[in-house]
Design a protein that fits this description.
Blueprint lengths: L2 H13 L12 H10 L5 H14 L3 H15 L6 H19 L7 H5 L6 H12 L8 H10 L7 H11 L5 H14 L26
Length: 210
């Protein structure tokens, strides 16, 4: 744990109440599907597409019955929809055959699913099962490096660095606090440094010029 980390999460925790994913889902399986769909796609777009889908299809059995071509058709407004449709069909089959239709709670089992990497597994464990994991997406990666809270050349490095500096009290919420701060304040092109609540704890070299 670091003094900077404690100050940053304390400040973010005061203004971001009940930090959770912006993705809309019905159960742990649809959470997994939404996270898979969100790769290189906004949560807003994913929610628009899945709103109607989850009313009819919300179990792995449903998606296996649909087959790949029908899955492609109902998610074709999502980027990389063909690859994602294939992954969704295959991971649904694995969940049925290997895990009795239930999304596994174990990290290693999750990343063994087709199309599921570290970030997706950590989001599902955190959001779906309440496990204190840290998922590093583009926002978390940017904020961590920009503030110098946890620097790394890739998501895996940042993830491991964050575990060393995030206070235990904030471990479960850390991912969402950093993600939401990055999405709405510490933006990629035009960070809103003038209204940033963690500005005094941030070591971003350009913050005084913005």
């Amino acid at each position: 744990m670091s003094a900077q980390g404690l100050n940053i999460f304390k400040a973010l925790g005061k203004i971001i109440k009940n930090p959770r994913s912006d993705l809309k889902y019905k159960n742990k399986f649809t959470l997994l599907i939404s996270v898979v769909l969100s790769a290189q796609c906004t949560d807003i777009n994913v929610n628009k597409v899945t709103k109607a889908i989850y009313r009819k299809y919300n179990t792995p059995e449903d998606f296996v019955k649909l087959r790949i071509k029908k899955i492609e058709k109902i998610i074709n407004k999502i980027g990389l929809f063909r690859t994602k449709a294939k992954n969704i069909f295959n991971l649904s089959k694995i969940i049925i055959n290997k895990y009795k239709g239930k999304v596994p709670k174990n990290f290693d089992n999750l990343i063994s699913l087709t199309g599921v990497g570290r970030k997706t597994a950590n989001v599902v464990l955190n959001e779906g099962f309440g496990v204190p994991t840290i998922a590093v997406d583009t926002h978390v990666f940017r904020v961590s490096n920009r503030t110098k809270l946890a620097e790394g050349k890739g998501p895996d490095q940042v993830e491991q660095a964050l575990y060393k500096v995030v206070p235990k009290k904030y471990l479960k919420e850390a991912h969402h606090l950093l993600l939401l701060h990055g999405r709405y304040t510490c933006k990629a092109r035009k960070p809103l440094c003038k209204i940033c609540v963690i500005k005094k704890y941030c070591q971003y070299e350009m913050k005084e010029m913005i």
